[in-house]
Design goal:
With 146 residues, the chain is an alpha+beta fold. It has 2 domains: 3-111, no CATH class; 112-146, no CATH class. The chain is 49% helix and 15% strand. The chain has 7 helices and 4 strands. The chain has a 4-stranded antiparallel sheet with strand order 2-1-3-4. The radius of gyration is 20 Å and the shape is elongated.
Length: 146
């Protein structure tokens, strides 16, 4: 069986699932059998379909665990050991094949977001704000505060 046929079976001809699958394979680098295993678990498939069809769910988080399984969640975990991918609803309406790109924002969540934020502030924002060349056009009060 060709790889394209395997992928077609994995997303069950639902363009919304294909969108999620395509993003996850680009960012997480897993084999198609991980997706199939997740979608063959009724609880996980129901969770994903509920997110797509019910506007009250604002976020879908999919994590590739250290055990190598894909696990969806409708809430952010309090702790994480691996990177996750999120799909967040912008508008409170069902996600369709036609509106998926307009209604979702998506990206990755680091397992250590606070540490990553600290590095971003220290290595990017502080040097930019402290550089006098960047102060042109700023009010004097703001320059003094920085």
């Amino acid at each position: 069986m060709s790889n394209a046929t395997i992928e077609d079976d994995a997303v069950e001809s639902d363009p919304r699932l294909l969108f999620i699958y395509t993003y996850l394979t680009k960012t997480t680098k897993f084999k198609v059998d991980k997706w199939q295993k997740m979608m063959n678990t009724d609880m996980y498939k129901t969770m994903i379909m509920d997110f797509l069809e019910k506007p009250q769910h604002s976020v879908l988080l999919v994590t590739l665990t250290s055990a190598g399984t894909l696990v969806p969640s409708l809430t952010f975990p309090t702790t994480g050991k691996t990177k996750s991918s999120y799909f967040a609803r912008v508008k409170p309406e069902p996600i369709t094949a036609e509106n998926i790109r307009k209604c979702l924002i998506f990206g990755d969540v680091s397992p250590k977001p606070l540490e990553d934020l600290a590095v971003l502030v220290e290595e990017v924002f502080v040097p930019v704000f402290c550089n006098p060349a960047n102060h042109k056009g700023w009010p004097a009060v703001v320059v003094e505060d920085v």
